[in-house]
Design brief:
The chain is of the alpha/beta class. It contains nine helices and nine strands. It has helices at 61-69, 72-78, 93-105, 120-129, 142-149, 154-165, 184-196, 213-219, 232-244, and strands at residues 11-20, 28-33, 57-59, 81-86, 109-114, 132-136, 170-176, 203-207, 249-250. A nine-stranded mixed sheet has the order 3-1-2-4-5-6-7-8-9. A hairpin with a 7-residue loop joins strand 1 and strand 2. The relative contact order is 0.13.
Protein backbone atom coordinates (compact mmCIF):
# COMPACT_ATOMS: atom_id res chain seq x y z
CA UNK A 1 0.00 0.00 0.00
CA UNK A 2 1.13 3.55 -0.70
CA UNK A 3 1.81 5.97 2.14
CA UNK A 4 0.74 8.73 -0.22
CA UNK A 5 0.50 12.23 1.18
CA UNK A 6 -1.47 14.88 -0.69
CA UNK A 7 0.03 18.35 -0.30
CA UNK A 8 -2.58 20.77 -1.54
CA UNK A 9 -4.44 23.76 -0.16
CA UNK A 10 -7.54 22.31 -1.77
CA UNK A 11 -8.93 19.19 -0.09
CA UNK A 12 -11.34 16.53 -1.21
CA UNK A 13 -14.01 16.33 1.50
CA UNK A 14 -16.26 13.28 1.38
CA UNK A 15 -18.79 14.48 3.96
CA UNK A 16 -19.51 17.09 6.64
CA UNK A 17 -21.54 15.66 9.52
CA UNK A 18 -23.14 18.14 11.88
CA UNK A 19 -24.31 17.54 15.48
CA UNK A 20 -21.90 14.66 16.04
CA UNK A 21 -21.50 13.56 19.67
CA UNK A 22 -19.07 10.64 19.32
CA UNK A 23 -15.97 12.33 17.89
CA UNK A 24 -14.74 14.34 20.84
CA UNK A 25 -16.28 16.53 23.57
CA UNK A 26 -19.57 18.36 23.14
CA UNK A 27 -21.53 18.85 19.94
CA UNK A 28 -19.18 18.66 16.99
CA UNK A 29 -19.03 19.09 13.27
CA UNK A 30 -17.07 16.18 11.81
CA UNK A 31 -15.27 16.77 8.53
CA UNK A 32 -14.40 13.58 6.65
CA UNK A 33 -11.38 14.00 4.39
CA UNK A 34 -11.09 11.68 1.43
CA UNK A 35 -8.31 9.11 1.08
CA UNK A 36 -6.52 6.71 3.41
CA UNK A 37 -3.21 4.83 3.01
CA UNK A 38 -4.58 1.98 5.17
CA UNK A 39 -7.13 -0.62 4.12
CA UNK A 40 -8.38 -2.06 7.41
CA UNK A 41 -10.59 -5.12 7.02
CA UNK A 42 -13.22 -3.60 9.32
CA UNK A 43 -13.21 -0.03 7.97
CA UNK A 44 -16.65 1.52 8.49
CA UNK A 45 -15.96 4.29 5.97
CA UNK A 46 -14.86 2.30 2.89
CA UNK A 47 -16.11 5.10 0.67
CA UNK A 48 -13.34 7.30 2.11
CA UNK A 49 -10.39 4.99 1.33
CA UNK A 50 -9.78 5.82 -2.34
CA UNK A 51 -7.89 9.03 -3.07
CA UNK A 52 -9.42 9.43 -6.52
CA UNK A 53 -13.20 9.52 -6.28
CA UNK A 54 -16.21 11.32 -7.66
CA UNK A 55 -17.95 11.53 -4.30
CA UNK A 56 -17.96 14.57 -2.07
CA UNK A 57 -16.47 17.84 -3.27
CA UNK A 58 -13.39 20.00 -3.10
CA UNK A 59 -13.00 22.75 -0.50
CA UNK A 60 -10.36 25.37 0.02
CA UNK A 61 -9.66 26.40 3.63
CA UNK A 62 -11.54 29.72 3.66
CA UNK A 63 -14.62 28.03 2.23
CA UNK A 64 -14.51 25.23 4.79
CA UNK A 65 -14.02 27.56 7.76
CA UNK A 66 -17.20 29.38 6.70
CA UNK A 67 -19.07 26.06 6.83
CA UNK A 68 -17.61 25.26 10.24
CA UNK A 69 -18.46 28.70 11.63
CA UNK A 70 -22.15 28.08 10.95
CA UNK A 71 -22.16 25.77 13.96
CA UNK A 72 -20.07 27.87 16.35
CA UNK A 73 -23.03 28.69 18.58
CA UNK A 74 -23.52 24.95 19.23
CA UNK A 75 -19.81 24.55 19.97
CA UNK A 76 -19.91 27.38 22.51
CA UNK A 77 -23.01 26.05 24.28
CA UNK A 78 -21.77 22.45 24.51
CA UNK A 79 -17.99 22.72 24.75
CA UNK A 80 -17.75 21.19 21.30
CA UNK A 81 -15.93 22.03 18.12
CA UNK A 82 -14.78 20.49 14.87
CA UNK A 83 -13.29 17.04 14.32
CA UNK A 84 -11.22 16.12 11.27
CA UNK A 85 -11.62 12.48 10.35
CA UNK A 86 -11.62 10.39 7.19
CA UNK A 87 -10.16 8.55 5.51
CA UNK A 88 -6.94 9.76 7.02
CA UNK A 89 -6.85 13.54 7.55
CA UNK A 90 -3.06 13.58 7.80
CA UNK A 91 -2.90 12.35 4.19
CA UNK A 92 -4.01 15.86 3.17
CA UNK A 93 -1.48 17.43 5.49
CA UNK A 94 -1.03 20.90 4.02
CA UNK A 95 -4.76 21.53 3.96
CA UNK A 96 -5.25 20.10 7.45
CA UNK A 97 -2.57 22.34 8.94
CA UNK A 98 -4.06 25.39 7.22
CA UNK A 99 -7.60 24.71 8.46
CA UNK A 100 -6.35 23.94 11.99
CA UNK A 101 -4.66 27.35 12.07
CA UNK A 102 -7.87 29.03 10.93
CA UNK A 103 -9.87 27.21 13.61
CA UNK A 104 -7.39 28.35 16.26
CA UNK A 105 -7.77 31.94 15.06
CA UNK A 106 -11.55 31.58 15.44
CA UNK A 107 -11.14 29.94 18.89
CA UNK A 108 -12.77 26.72 17.73
CA UNK A 109 -11.85 23.53 19.61
CA UNK A 110 -10.23 21.01 17.23
CA UNK A 111 -9.89 17.24 17.28
CA UNK A 112 -7.96 15.14 14.77
CA UNK A 113 -8.94 11.48 14.42
CA UNK A 114 -5.94 9.69 12.93
CA UNK A 115 -4.34 6.32 12.33
CA UNK A 116 -0.99 7.95 13.14
CA UNK A 117 0.38 6.88 9.77
CA UNK A 118 2.36 9.95 8.73
CA UNK A 119 5.84 11.38 9.00
CA UNK A 120 6.90 12.66 12.41
CA UNK A 121 7.16 16.26 11.13
CA UNK A 122 3.52 16.16 10.02
CA UNK A 123 2.42 14.47 13.24
CA UNK A 124 4.29 17.04 15.32
CA UNK A 125 2.78 20.00 13.43
CA UNK A 126 -0.74 18.62 13.72
CA UNK A 127 -0.33 17.94 17.44
CA UNK A 128 0.88 21.50 18.06
CA UNK A 129 -2.22 22.98 16.38
CA UNK A 130 -4.98 20.63 17.60
CA UNK A 131 -6.60 20.50 21.03
CA UNK A 132 -7.03 16.72 21.10
CA UNK A 133 -5.86 13.75 19.04
CA UNK A 134 -7.93 10.60 18.77
CA UNK A 135 -5.15 8.12 17.99
CA UNK A 136 -6.15 4.73 16.59
CA UNK A 137 -4.37 1.76 18.14
CA UNK A 138 -5.18 -1.52 16.42
CA UNK A 139 -2.51 -4.21 16.52
CA UNK A 140 0.90 -4.19 18.19
CA UNK A 141 2.33 -7.13 16.21
CA UNK A 142 3.70 -5.61 12.99
CA UNK A 143 3.12 -8.71 10.87
CA UNK A 144 -0.54 -8.87 11.86
CA UNK A 145 -0.88 -5.12 11.38
CA UNK A 146 0.41 -5.55 7.82
CA UNK A 147 -2.02 -8.41 7.23
CA UNK A 148 -5.16 -6.62 8.44
CA UNK A 149 -4.44 -2.98 7.53
CA UNK A 150 -2.03 -3.21 4.60
CA UNK A 151 0.74 -1.16 6.24
CA UNK A 152 3.45 -1.55 8.88
CA UNK A 153 2.77 -0.08 12.31
CA UNK A 154 6.38 0.97 12.99
CA UNK A 155 5.78 4.62 12.08
CA UNK A 156 2.46 4.58 13.94
CA UNK A 157 3.94 3.30 17.20
CA UNK A 158 6.91 5.67 16.89
CA UNK A 159 4.48 8.57 16.54
CA UNK A 160 2.46 7.45 19.54
CA UNK A 161 5.55 7.26 21.74
CA UNK A 162 6.72 10.64 20.43
CA UNK A 163 3.37 12.32 21.12
CA UNK A 164 3.24 10.86 24.61
CA UNK A 165 6.76 12.05 25.43
CA UNK A 166 5.80 15.53 24.26
CA UNK A 167 2.62 15.55 26.37
CA UNK A 168 0.15 15.79 23.50
CA UNK A 169 -3.44 15.45 24.64
CA UNK A 170 -4.43 11.97 23.50
CA UNK A 171 -7.31 9.55 23.62
CA UNK A 172 -6.47 6.15 22.22
CA UNK A 173 -9.14 4.51 20.09
CA UNK A 174 -9.14 0.72 20.01
CA UNK A 175 -11.41 -1.06 17.51
CA UNK A 176 -12.40 -4.35 19.14
CA UNK A 177 -12.57 -6.73 16.18
CA UNK A 178 -13.50 -10.40 16.81
CA UNK A 179 -10.63 -12.77 16.08
CA UNK A 180 -8.29 -9.92 15.06
CA UNK A 181 -7.73 -7.24 17.68
CA UNK A 182 -9.57 -8.92 20.58
CA UNK A 183 -7.18 -11.87 20.90
CA UNK A 184 -5.51 -12.45 24.26
CA UNK A 185 -2.08 -11.79 22.73
CA UNK A 186 -3.08 -8.46 21.23
CA UNK A 187 -4.96 -7.31 24.32
CA UNK A 188 -1.90 -8.06 26.45
CA UNK A 189 0.37 -6.27 23.96
CA UNK A 190 -1.89 -3.20 23.90
CA UNK A 191 -2.04 -3.15 27.71
CA UNK A 192 1.76 -3.37 27.94
CA UNK A 193 2.16 -0.60 25.39
CA UNK A 194 -0.21 1.76 27.20
CA UNK A 195 1.43 1.06 30.55
CA UNK A 196 4.82 1.89 29.00
CA UNK A 197 3.62 5.41 28.10
CA UNK A 198 4.43 8.12 30.62
CA UNK A 199 0.96 9.76 30.50
CA UNK A 200 -1.18 6.58 30.34
CA UNK A 201 -3.80 8.10 27.99
CA UNK A 202 -7.40 6.90 28.30
CA UNK A 203 -8.57 4.18 25.94
CA UNK A 204 -11.83 4.34 24.04
CA UNK A 205 -13.04 0.89 22.99
CA UNK A 206 -14.90 0.86 19.68
CA UNK A 207 -17.07 -2.28 19.64
CA UNK A 208 -17.38 -4.07 16.32
CA UNK A 209 -20.57 -3.44 14.40
CA UNK A 210 -21.85 -4.61 11.03
CA UNK A 211 -23.34 -1.32 9.90
CA UNK A 212 -20.77 -0.97 7.11
CA UNK A 213 -21.67 -4.23 5.34
CA UNK A 214 -24.28 -2.47 3.21
CA UNK A 215 -21.71 0.13 2.14
CA UNK A 216 -19.38 -2.58 0.84
CA UNK A 217 -22.22 -4.13 -1.12
CA UNK A 218 -23.15 -0.79 -2.69
CA UNK A 219 -19.51 -0.07 -3.56
CA UNK A 220 -19.07 -3.64 -4.88
CA UNK A 221 -16.20 -4.22 -2.48
CA UNK A 222 -15.36 -7.47 -0.73
CA UNK A 223 -16.22 -7.29 2.98
CA UNK A 224 -13.85 -9.77 4.61
CA UNK A 225 -15.70 -9.91 7.94
CA UNK A 226 -19.13 -10.79 6.60
CA UNK A 227 -21.08 -12.78 9.17
CA UNK A 228 -18.73 -11.92 12.05
CA UNK A 229 -20.57 -11.04 15.27
CA UNK A 230 -19.69 -9.71 18.68
CA UNK A 231 -21.53 -10.01 21.98
CA UNK A 232 -21.86 -7.45 24.75
CA UNK A 233 -20.22 -10.00 27.05
CA UNK A 234 -17.09 -10.02 24.87
CA UNK A 235 -16.89 -6.24 24.93
CA UNK A 236 -17.29 -6.14 28.72
CA UNK A 237 -14.59 -8.81 29.13
CA UNK A 238 -12.10 -6.79 27.09
CA UNK A 239 -12.98 -3.64 29.00
CA UNK A 240 -12.41 -5.41 32.29
CA UNK A 241 -8.93 -6.57 31.24
CA UNK A 242 -7.89 -2.99 30.61
CA UNK A 243 -9.49 -1.73 33.81
CA UNK A 244 -7.82 -4.47 35.84
CA UNK A 245 -4.50 -2.98 34.70
CA UNK A 246 -5.43 0.52 35.82
CA UNK A 247 -6.24 1.85 32.35
CA UNK A 248 -9.04 4.41 32.12
CA UNK A 249 -11.51 2.95 29.63
CA UNK A 250 -14.29 4.63 27.67
CA UNK A 251 -16.86 2.86 25.46
Amino acid sequence: MSNRIINSVIAQISNIQRFSIHDGPGIRTTVFLQGCPLSCWWCHNPECIAFETSQGREFEPNELIKEIMKDKVFFEESGGGVTFSGGEPLAQAEFLLDILKKCKEKQIHTVVDTSGYAGKNIMDSVASLSDLILFDLKLVDDEKHMQYTGVSNKMILDNLIYLDKNNARLILRFPLIPGITDTDDNLHDVIDLILSLQNKPPLEILPYHRIAEGKYDRLKLDFKLKGVKQTEKEVKAAKQKFMDNGIHVLI
